[in-house]
Amino acid sequence: MTQELKDHKLDLIVWPETSLPGGISQSPSLTREIQATAAGLHTPILIGSVAQEGDHYYNSAFLIGADGQMLGRYDKIHLVPFGEYYL
């Protein structure tokens, strides 16, 4: 669906929260593919994914720049009771 946007000049493409199967660090080939897509479209992509640091997991958002570089990560601060929690 993202590739279908190639004929549009967009400021940002936003994917849903936890749109990747598994965590972003668990799928480097998929991450590279998304980076290539952002670079090919010359448009930043904001994706939701689980991030893992050691034994801790975070509900995070990652920004991939229009050049395909990973620009940053934001970890959700206020988790939904009974649905999200830090391990």
Overall description:
It is a single chain. This protein has 87 residues and is an alpha+beta fold. Helix content is 16%, strand content 30%. It has one helix and four strands, in the order βαβββ. The protein has one helix at 28-41; strands at residues 13-14, 45-53, 56-64, 70-75. The chain has a four-stranded mixed β-sheet with strand order 1-2-3-4. β3 and β4 form a beta hairpin. The longest helix has 14 residues, at 28-41. The model has no long low-confidence stretch (mean pLDDT 85).
Ordered list of secondary-structure elements with their pairings:
Blueprint: E1 13-14, H1 28-41, E2 45-53, E3 56-64, E4 70-75
Parallel strand pairs: 1-2
Antiparallel strand pairs: 2-3, 3-4
Strand content: 25-35%
Count of alpha and pi helical runs: 1
Which sequence of SSEs, written as H and E, runs from N to C? EHEEE
Largest sheet: 4 strands, mixed
What kind of assembly state do the chains in view correspond to?
single chain
Separation of the first and last Cα atoms: 33 Å
Question: In percent, how helical is the residue content?
Answer: 10-25%
Shape: elongated
Number of strands: 4
* Rg estimate, integer Å: 14 Å
Mean pLDDT: 85
User: Which strands sit side by side, in order, in the main sheet?
Assistant: 1-2-3-4
What would you call the structural class? alpha+beta
- Can you tell me the residue ranges where pLDDT is under 50 for at least 5 consecutive residues? none
